[in-house]
Amino acid sequence: MEIIRSLIFVPGNRINMIEKALDFNADIIMYDLEDSVPPDEKENARNIAKEWVPKLHAAGKKVMVRCNGFDTGLTKLEISAVVSPSLYGVSVGKTESEWDIKGIEQIINPLEQTCGISHGSLKIIPWIESAKAMRNVDSIATASDRVIAIAFGAEDYTNDMGVQRTDDGSEVYVPRANVAIAARASDVVGLDGPYVAFQNPDGLKQDAGLARQLGYKGKFAIHPSQIEIINETFSPSQEEIDYARRVLSEWETAKANGRGSLSIDGKMVDVPVVKRAENLIALMNQIDEHTRI
User: Cα angle at 272 between 276 and 245, to 5 degrees?
Assistant: First the structure.
């Protein structure tokens, strides 16, 4: 499974902000053609993308482009404009069914061939942002091998449902959890949408921490100051690593003595706890390798 802890949106029509992305330490730079670009700037943003996606890639960045959904009539135009060997993949807003994924594939397949890109190289991250998408989330996540992750968009979801956003997020707790569950069941990465109060780092820590507890593996950022907090939240802490190593060490001793469980700090440790410890150490190693690349 991909290591995708942090993804940052960069407005596709703002060259000054795109230039700054050269220094961003996000796992993916998400060049945005959707919500952050006004309608009369869409064409300009597409043209800028043709220049800047290769520049960002040349600087060692993994770049995806978020395109507008099929309901806008812009999807094919945008994907056709940005596909190149420098592009890692596309993220499409307001995906509602597996047929949207099939439609994206139909656009991408000939473009890969034209650009000399190996078939299947370009990845897809669909957004789950409506009640209909929520009903179809499993089929969306498994519609193509190109789908490496699914993202939950709380703002559009609450708009679709006709409910107000609150600070505690109780109105999206159930769908937010369901997207994380669907991602795990489909063996793709679950990505949480952005925390919009970008001047509230404590709020971001709490929100990202909850997302991790729900099973998400990463989160979108809308401001560069959020990247470090997100990367840290979705990486094992030193305390977690130390405890996992202790569990594995004491488990080996227990097994050697013919025991199937043990106690650490007054808590029972058995096979599920050991497996969590093994998975955490594996994640740590995977992140270490990822950050060295």
Answer: 40
Residue 131, CA distances (Å) to 24, 80, 153, 291 in order: 34, 29, 11, 36
Sign of the CA dihedral running 207, 278, 190, 15: positive
pLDDT digits (tens, 9 = 90+) for 86-131: 999 999 999 999 999 999 999 999 999 999 999 999 999 999 999 9
Q: Tell me the CATH architecture of domain 6-233.
A: Alpha-Beta Barrel (3.20)
Can you give the pTM of this predicted structure?
Answer: 0.94
User: Where exactly are the structural domains of the chain?
Assistant: 6-233, 238-292
Which residues, other chains included, contact 137 with Cβ-Cβ below 8 Å and sequence gap of 6+? 128, 150, 178, 179, 182
How far is 134 from 128, CA to CA, in rounded Å? 6
Cα–Cα nearest to 186, from 220, 153, 229, 143: 143
